[in-house]
Here is the input.
Amino acid sequence: MSQQRTGHEAGITGRVGAVTPSAVLGSQPDFPDLPEATVARLPEYLRALHHLAETGHDTVSSEGLALAAGVNSAKLRKDLSHLGSYGTRGVGYDIEPLVGQIEYILGLNKRRAVALVGVGNLGHALAGYAGFASRGFRIAALFDADLTRVGELINGIAVRHIGDIPEVVKSEAISIAVLATPAGAAQAVADQLVAAGVTSILNFAPVVLNLPEQVDVRKVDLAVELQILSFHEHRKSARGAELAKAMARGAVNGSPVATLGEVAA
Amino acid sequence: MSQQRTGHEAGITGRVGAVTPSAVLGSQPDFPDLPEATVARLPEYLRALHHLAETGHDTVSSEGLALAAGVNSAKLRKDLSHLGSYGTRGVGYDIEPLVGQIEYILGLNKRRAVALVGVGNLGHALAGYAGFASRGFRIAALFDADLTRVGELINGIAVRHIGDIPEVVKSEAISIAVLATPAGAAQAVADQLVAAGVTSILNFAPVVLNLPEQVDVRKVDLAVELQILSFHEHRKSARGAELAKAMARGAVNGSPVATLGEVAA
DNA sequence: CGCGATTTGTGCACCTGTTCACAAGCGCTT
DNA sequence: AAGCGCTTGTGAACAGGTGCACAAATCGCG
Here is the structure.
């Protein structure tokens, strides 16, 4: 159970990137077709690899990397096999070129400029989050609708009014935006962002955005995550109660106290 | 493409809750076996239903609710059918009892106490996040390892030292914790939480936690989300470039400018 | 009271993704 | 130079989830 479930729902099917058969242009396998599920795991592999590199490793086996990334080794090998062959049988994977390949695939060789809209409670924290900077992104602009917030400096960047979105998105060549506005404003702001040229949005507002097909949207809803955990809590206690009842009636083997953990294990 | 992908990876398979065959105890269908994918969508349905209720609706069709929740109607009907029958053919679903049923399943009838560990940049924002309170949770305790932070009041709650975790988790009957510590501290803190009795953890630290089977862990990594979007950006531009090249060579139909959007649509 | 319009609930086929298990390949040792 | 142990890469079976398409059920209206 404590297998780690990480962001990103499958839900949408199909390979990603399969648009032009390479036969048409005879291109080298520069951009392989990756299953969506694999794409979602690559960042986790990348993080684990960086950690291994920092702790002095040059190579790592699929078993070792799988452990560090919280997946099983077969899955890991299949995922990496999609990127081409970066392993040596009998030895393992060379960390350095593998890191390079994954970063290339993820488009992280160049640092990407990101806009953040909504400098409220959450947005403020995101603006200061060091993890963005250290993992390939640069917060290039902050926006808010509230005029009293405009001008405020956060981490050295001034908050601008959302009216400036078109101008700034163009001048900074921003294609990714983080949306941390209140729910009510999210759709309108998203429309403005898309109109300005943004093609990927990370949405923290608890609303379903309605946007053109070609725009990628990922949603993170903190309350939803807790509610899913709540379900599992409810389930555990319900099952525990039922089992206890069953025990009390049938009363065969094992101590009622241990049942919950035992069953799950 | 702009279909909304929401947290929560499948990855782990199997029904949830299938532990005791109800034959053993002849229990009413109080706690149905739900596919994990369905569980992950229920919170979204719940949010949409609340919104509909607030805007004066009594009933809603599967089509309408599916639209509001960002899924297709067949999937929605199948999901709801797992909860038992709350719809009327020819009419739709009665919102009120449906809300009640989903809240019951998710264990949201009673407000759940949550502990938050790590009152740094992100933790501070989470502590003040209104969405938790409004959607079934109560932040019952704040913890930090930094003694200079201990005692600070956030939203009316005092930050306590992590050494107090065992005591407070027991006295407040906390089973869910939010982990917003630096990566280096996360595993140790998680161990302490579990030892104190916590059985579900929402982990914001970019590390894979190693915990007993019976503990549920969900992971949210903001940088990972951006990296996935980055992949799609990279893919879009790579495909765009290839298409442009192909166009320039073969030069058959359509304007090169429109291709990207056209293909995706 | 019966008929038609509407919408749910679901059997079924399809498809993505996971896992097992093993052959192929590599390096080290003798 | 040959053999041995180790690890990758992958074919094949399996599991879970999705979406179509339709039968069953309900309501409203004539």
